[in-house]
Amino acid sequence: MSATTVIAIYFIMWWVVLFAVLPWGIRSQHESGEITPGTDPGAPSAHVIGRKLLLTTLVTSVIFGFFYVAYTQDLIPFDWLAQISTPPRQ
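User: That's the sequence. What structure does it adopt?
Assistant: Structure tokens below.
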């Protein structure tokens, strides 16, 4: 697998994990009881995007590492992946 392919797969996985991580631990202004005038009560009360980006990178690295090792050590045969990814014949 080329370095460009590895980077592209990691990049795609990172974005998918980011959208999964974003709602973790969010408290709305309505839940916290501190509604800023002119904002939606459902808006987050505290922005912790730096922590979310770090957590996303850590989670993605673990997931990517697992799949990379499984691929490079042939724990998941390529023929099997090709077989399950093709549509069934009618």
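The chain has four helices and no strands.
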